[in-house]
Amino acid sequence: MGKGGMSHGNTDEGKEVNMAAWLLGINDIKILPFNLPPLGAHDARIRMKAVGICGSDVHYLKAMKLADFIVKEPMVIGHECAGIIEEVGAEVKHLLPGDRVAIEPGISCWRCNLCKDGRYNLCPEMKFFATPPIHGSLANQIVHPADLCFKLPENVSLEEGAMCEPLSVGVHACRRANVGPETNVLVMGAGPIGLVTMLAARAFGSPRIVIVDVDDHRLSVAKELGANQTVKVSTNSNDLRDEVERIKEAMGGGIDISFDCAGFSKTMSTALGATCSGGKVCLVGMGHTEMTVPLAPAAVREVDVVGIFRYKNTWPLCIEFLQSGKIDVKPLITHRFGFSQKEVEDAFETSALGGTAIKVMFNL
């Protein structure tokens, strides 16, 4: 929550000091005390148990900025999270202390036209965990609106609860692109978001999914997770035409929907070239803020281009997918760390290096 602040340990005798991982500067992350805001009538105080590292967290650590968001003062990091309810406000009826919950990290205003229209993910007043200047959730405890805390069924773990956040991106993308049992899907990029988009597309009924990446290891993971075919590509734009043909061949039929989960000029150009006439390309990743892509040929073939920003109203469906076994996110969690100074540093380094790491998870 945005209102909490750094403290210097002046707490009542015997009272637990709430600690959090503070981003202080480039490559400078420290576990320090974190003052919680007061518990409002509609809030819950949650003890964090599982927090995942997202690419954006690493970006802030390495550059102190992401797109137009700049870290100007110390900020608690983390936004993929789940925990256990410790206390609820007077007006909270659906949760009790001890409930295990997955947490949606964005608080919208609920007053603007976009919120009223149900597109609250686009709210200009959005307060989102670990997007400056709002504090995130890599802490012992946080305070958050109770209506953004979703109770987990017994057969869904807290780690899986934390994975609802990245999975939500894939679910929202599939809704935006109208994935269904008659749509063949291409996924550009086999990183964490590409993989959850693939899993979501399968859960939405896509019969055939091809996934593309530059990395052999990531492609092998995609295959294990159920991709029908994988295609290894290069970063060289001169290979584009040949790669589009190889991708079409791998699909063995028309590509109805392509998801660009990388977001570079080349990946977007590949997606536009590979998608069949009348199909859709959904831009999910944000590798480049500006890109040069062949839109005119796509326009002539009536290929629709849609974008997504985060997600909306996805947690209940994500939890249903996990509970029913339609989606299994457990294989995505490749590395686990505790919540000590050294482990926090090591975890972010592991995530930043990539290699075999897909999702790095803190167990608090």
UniProtKB/TrEMBL annotation:
A molecular-function term among this protein's GO annotations: zinc ion binding
CC cofactor: Zn(2+)
Domain of life from the UniProt record: Eukaryota
PROSITE patterns associated with the record: ADH_ZINC
Domain Enoyl reductase (ER) positions: 25-362
Keywords: Metal-binding, NAD, Oxidoreductase, Zinc
SUPFAM superfamilies, sorted: GroES-like, NAD(P)-binding Rossmann-fold domains
Family, similarity comment: Belongs to the zinc-containing alcohol dehydrogenase family.
Protein name: Enoyl reductase (ER) domain-containing protein
Organism whose genome encodes this protein: Erythranthe guttata
